[in-house]
Amino acid sequence: MAQTDRLALPLLATGQAQKEITHNEALLRIDMIAQPIVESADLSAPPGAPALGQCWAVGGGATGAWAGQEGAIAAWTAGGWLFALPQEGWAAWAIDRGHMIRFDGTFWIDAPSRHLVVTGFEKYQF
Q1: Which residues lie below 8 Å from residue 55, measured CB to CB, with a gap of 6+?
Q2: Cα dihedral angle (10, 37, 70, 110), rounded to 10 degrees?
Q3: Stretch (H or E) spanning 101
Q4: Edge-to-edge strand ranges of the sheet holding 73-77
Q5: Which SS3 state, helix, strand or coil, does residue 69 take?
Q6: Could you give the maximum distance between any two Cα atoms of the chain, in Å?
Q7: I want to staple 100 with a disulfide (CB 3.0 to 4.6 A). Which of 42, 44, 111, 119 is the partner?
Q8: Residue 90 and residue 73: Cα distance in Å, rounded?
């Protein structure tokens, strides 16, 4: 199947029957990778009862339905697991960690945090 270069979205083929299947898969992929939120980046096996739309960053040594998908974002859909392989630099919010994670090309790592400290306002009332 032909796909886009960056996000691997499935492309419609000329004269393709059942175009809605390819189109719907593309929408599901966009839904999982546009502003991604993952439940965790620490699991290597699929959770027991995922809710539709929940995503995980697959950990190392993946097993079960996630076997061979290390590092991928795994989304639970009505049709089962859907995977997207991230590119270096992708970032996601990890719910269980409470902060951003970043894909370094091999693993999901904690993204560096940046803090802005403003001083000198002690004499002003807010």
Answers
A1: 32, 36, 37, 38, 39, 73, 74, 75, 76, 92
A2: 140
A3: strand 99-103
A4: 55-57, 73-77, 80-84
A5: coil
A6: 71
A7: 111
A8: 11
